[in-house]
Amino acid sequence: MCQPSWGRARAEAQRLSDLARLRRVRDRMDRECGRPLDIEALARAANLPAAPLGRQFRLAYGLAPHAYLMTRRVERATELLRRGDLSVTEVCSAVGGPSPATFRTCFAEQVGVSPDVYRQRATGEARPISDRSGMEKHPS
């Protein structure tokens, strides 16, 4: 006959094992966020089906795996954009963004401004101002 505490201990051990597995998935996403990653491959590496991995990851970290990965990519992109030596397209490629258009949309949703505006503000780039004649002039 099983003691009730054994069942609780076994459930707690399983919970800790699941958390360790999720931590390994998250750590891999952190390390390899610049590479193309898909949830199915992450799930296979964690020895879990993709749907349960997604549910468990969301419960543990508050975001679905794809959203977490995009958040990490945007964080890395802000660092690269602050440097100012790469174009937005180059930054998108460097952080593993799926496409420049998708990257720009995701970046703007998370940061509140487009990557172009973020880069201009971070680097202090002067943005040309058009006068009424349509001619560009630079602020002095």
TrEMBL record:
Signal peptide: none annotated. InterPro entries: AraC_XylS_family_regulators, Homeodomain-like_sf, HTH_AraC. Residues 23-121 form the HTH araC/xylS-type domain. It comes from Streptomyces formicae. The keyword Cell wall biogenesis/degradation does not apply. It comes from the Bacteria. The keyword Metal-binding does not apply. Pfam families: HTH_18. GO terms for molecular function: DNA-binding transcription factor activity; sequence-specific DNA binding. Keywords: DNA-binding, Transcription, Transcription regulation. Residues 119-140 are annotated as: Disordered. This is Transcriptional regulator, AraC family.
